[in-house]
């Protein structure tokens, strides 16, 4: 069995070939997205506060993501299969369904942005857009990359093409964003801003931690835990700081509408030849994100249907994402991101606590021979979700919002991510120690961290 179709079993040593630089390049590419550039428009903060929130959220979120990457490299199985250890086999199915849903949602977002960029470039050169056709084309490209698998994508696509597209697009975007922006005035002018610092922090964390349910799909092919931890942590932190930092300058200086991210592409297309090259680079940038969500959607589904060939699931995920991009006009997505944070931040707390109490190492037995359901871990996950929603207080979810608003909340802001993670972490530890006073005894030595 070759790497592109490797399923839910632990990856053998011969396929653990992605080193620090491979991992860093992959996550640098995955981190660059025009969708993220417009998110600071939701912050409604001054430039100083927006940059501070970016730094705090980036450090917290990427530390969480890097730890999830390390655990994935240790266990050598996909992220949703990894959830069998803390949640039980059947308990992991709930996480799997939610993760597949978020993968398809992100894939649809990405295909819309890619097709819009390609359509604008086509219009600039040939005089027509045909955006619907580009959605079909890039849906097919995402499927082709997913069928190649992570190792081949890194070696044949990221190293040879995508990393250079990232470099070109970052340079152009930085110049374009700063062009005409009065940084001195933005820095000194607090203005009339009603945003919440900690809500901005939670948004940055949510964007980052949305990758935690996918990250092991790739770091299971890492050479060791250290390469996975530092490669993912540093690789994704840099684009996080760039996008939220420069994005804050962009929205404060040009009044970008967060509900119409494609208008950034229209503005970029207004330039000359350099703008056309930038659009081409941006199109390459977005393609690997569509690949990642299609691939991980399929790999996650294998936790539910391990006997279905991965290639078939990739084809199905590609069709669903492409059809969604053709049928859906997705706009505002901060609520989507914060809902992901509410779900996956405490889930990560459950995983980290269980992994540490299992000796900071998962064996095959821990994952495939555990109980059907670990009720304590699921209770901890749900409790963390409720705390996140309670502290965040969403205002657009009908009876759920009405019920949450009746609950007393702290008079000071502390954000939702850290309390949610901490509660899920502590409760998981308590339930695990009550059910099994002795930590799990592993028969296999921990993976090297050379």
Please summarize what this structure is.
The chain is an all-alpha fold and 450 residues long. The protein is 71% helix and 0% strand.
Question: Can you describe what's shown?
Answer:
By secondary structure, this protein is mostly helical. It has 20 helices and no strands. Helix 14 packs across helix 15. The longest helix has 36 residues, at 91-126. Mean pLDDT is 85; it is low at 437-450.
Record the SSE blueprint.
Blueprint: H1 20-31, H2 34-37, H3 47-75, H4 79-82, H5 84-87, H6 91-126, H7 131-148, H8 150-178, H9 183-188, H10 197-209, H11 212-219, H12 225-254, H13 262-269, H14 273-301, H15 310-327, H16 334-357, H17 364-368, H18 375-392, H19 399-405, H20 417-435
Helix pairs in contact: 1-8, 1-12, 3-10, 3-11, 3-12, 3-16, 6-7, 6-13, 6-14, 6-15, 7-14, 7-15, 8-12, 8-14, 10-16, 14-15, 16-18, 16-20, 18-20
Overall pLDDT: 85
Quote the distance from N terminus to C terminus: 28 Å
Uncertain ranges:
437-450
The tally of helices reads 20
Oligomeric state as shown: single chain
Radius of gyration: 21 Å
The largest β sheet comes out as: none
Helix content: over 70%
Order of helices and strands: HHHHHHHHHHHHHHHHHHHH
Shape field: globular
Number of strands: 0
- Look at the helices and sheets and give the structural class: mainly alpha
Fraction in beta strands? under 5%
């Amino acid at each position: 069995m070759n790497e592109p179709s490797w399923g839910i079993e632990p990856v053998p040593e011969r396929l653990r070939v992605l080193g620090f630089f491979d991992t860093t390049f992959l996550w640098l590419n995955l981190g660059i997205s025009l969708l993220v550039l417009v998110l600071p428009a939701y912050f409604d903060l001054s430039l100083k506060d927006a940059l501070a929130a970016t730094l705090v959220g980036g450090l917290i979120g990427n530390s969480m993501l890097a730890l999830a990457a390390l655990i994935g490299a240790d266990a050598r199985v996909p992220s949703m299969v990894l959830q069998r250890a803390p949640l039980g086999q059947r308990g992991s199915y709930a996480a799997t369904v939610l993760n597949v849903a978020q993968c398809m949602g992100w894939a649809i977002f990405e295909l819309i942005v890619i097709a819009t960029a390609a359509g604008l470039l086509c219009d600039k050169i040939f005089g027509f857009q045909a955006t619907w056709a580009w959605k079909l084309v890039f849906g097919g490209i995402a499927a082709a990359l997913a069928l190649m698998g992570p190792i081949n994508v890194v070696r044949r696509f990221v190293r040879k093409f995508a990393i250079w597209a990232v470099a070109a697009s970052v340079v152009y975007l930085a110049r374009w964003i700063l062009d005409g922006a009065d940084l001195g005035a933005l820095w000194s002018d607090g203005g009339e801003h009603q945003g919440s610092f900690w809500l901005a922090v939670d948004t940055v964390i949510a964007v980052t931690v949305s990758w935690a349910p996918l990250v092991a799909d790739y770091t299971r092919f890492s050479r060791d835990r250290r390469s996975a931890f530092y490669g993912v942590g540093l690789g994704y932190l840099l684009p996080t700081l760039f996008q939220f930092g420069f994005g804050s300058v962009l929205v404060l200086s040009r009044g970008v509408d967060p509900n119409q991210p494609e208008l950034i592409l229209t503005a970029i297309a207004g330039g000359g030849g350099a703008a056309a090259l930038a659009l081409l680079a941006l199109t390459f940038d977005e393609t690997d994100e569509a690949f990642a969500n299609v691939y991980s959607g399929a790999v996650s589904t294998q936790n539910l249907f391990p006997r279905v060939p991965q290639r078939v699931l990739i084809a199905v995920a590609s069709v669903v994402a492409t059809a969604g991009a053709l049928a859906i006009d997705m706009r505002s997505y901060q609520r989507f991101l914060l809902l992901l944070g509410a779900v996956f931040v405490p889930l990560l707390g459950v995983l980290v606590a269980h992994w540490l109490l299992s000796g900071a190492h998962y064996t095959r037995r821990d994952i495939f021979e555990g109980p059907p359901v670990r009720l304590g871990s699921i209770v901890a996950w749900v409790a963390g979700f409720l705390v996140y929603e309670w502290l965040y207080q969403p205002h657009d979810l009908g009876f759920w919002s009405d019920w949450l608003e009746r609950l007393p909340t702290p008079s000071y802001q502390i954000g939702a991510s850290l309390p949610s993670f901490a509660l899920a972490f502590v409760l998981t530890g308590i339930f695990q120690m009550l059910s099994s006073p002795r930590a799990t005894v592993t028969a296999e030595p921990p993976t090297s961290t050379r």
